[in-house]
């Protein structure tokens, strides 16, 4: 497997300024991602796609505050403001994002379990099918970018490395939430997993 694919993580309205779970400067990733898209013949987009009753929404737990943590059946789970609800404008891709992808992976659509990674739900066992798709297409290397660095990009990159893909995260085509030091922890975890860190300029 020698091919390289671009994996664009969750560049959706709710993660951009004005959205329900806005990442600071989240929309700043759109232009560099579009530039990268022109370089890679195989492109995959991921899309958070939650039902309104999703268990990761703080509103669905009486008295729970957003950004608090509960213990789910599969481990610790951050409770988020409701976001990227199926079929809503917030779940749509940013209007300026290049979306002519080979595949769109929708994740988090099961109410009882969240899904940060493009490869697995948060139980780290239930696959999305992306790994098999990429292998059948002859892909061995992945370039990952999007939102947010310390959650969905992080989990996707670490899983990619564990699955045997050569993984590179484009730091200036990502933005992070940085919840209680989560951004620094994410970069360290990715480094330990063997994920490469690069800039847009290095890849163009």
Could you characterize the architecture of this molecule?
- The chain has 204 residues and is α/β, with parallel strands linked by helices.
- It has one domain (3-52, 86-202): Rossmann fold (3-Layer(aba) Sandwich).
- Helices cover 22% and strands 24% of the residues.
- It contains five helices and eight strands; from the N terminus they run E-H-E-E-E-E-H-E-H-E-H-E-H.
- Strands 5-2-1-6-7-8 form a six-stranded parallel β-sheet, with helices on both faces.
- The chain is globular and about 50 Å long.
Radius of gyration using CA atoms only: 16 Å
Overall geometry comes to globular
Q: What count of domains describes the coordinates?
A: 1
Biggest β-sheet: strands ordered side by side in the sheet: 5-2-1-6-7-8
Helix content: 10-25%
- The CATH architecture is 3-Layer(aba) Sandwich
Q: Total number of helical segments?
A: 5
Task: Give me the CATH fold name.
Answer: Rossmann fold
Low-pLDDT segments: none
- Mind telling me the CATH superfamily name? Isochorismatase-like
Order of helices and strands: EHEEEEHEHEHEH
Organism: Pikeienuella piscinae
Domain Isochorismatase-like: 4-201
InterPro entries: Isochorismatase-like_dom, Isochorismatase-like_sf, Isochorismatase_Nicotinamidase
GO molecular function: metal ion binding; nicotinamidase activity
């Amino acid at each position: 497997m020698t091919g390289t694919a671009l994996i664009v993580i969750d560049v959706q309205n709710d993660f951009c300024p004005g959205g329900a779970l806005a990442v600071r400067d989240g929309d700043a990733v759109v232009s560099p991602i579009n530039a990268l898209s022109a370089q890679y013949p195989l492109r995959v987009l991921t899309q958070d796609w939650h039902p309104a009753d999703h268990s990761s929404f703080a509103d669905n737990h009486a008295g729970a505050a957003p950004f608090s943590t509960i213990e789910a059946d599969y481990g610790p789970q951050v409770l988020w403001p409701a976001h990227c609800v199926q079929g809503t404008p917030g779940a749509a891709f940013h209007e300026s994002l290049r979306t002519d992808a080979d595949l769109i992976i929708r994740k988090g659509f099961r109410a009882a379990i969240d899904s940060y990674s493009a490869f697995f739900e948060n139980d780290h066992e239930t696959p999305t099918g992306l790994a098999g798709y990429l292998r059948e297409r002859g892909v061995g290397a992945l370039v990952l970018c999007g939102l947010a660095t310390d959650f969905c990009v992080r989990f996707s990159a670490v899983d990619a490395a564990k699955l045997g893909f050569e993984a590179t995260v484009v730091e200036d085509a990502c933005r992070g939430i940085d919840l209680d030091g989560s951004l620094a922890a994410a970069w360290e975890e990715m480094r330990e997993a063997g994920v490469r860190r690069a800039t847009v300029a290095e890849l163009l």
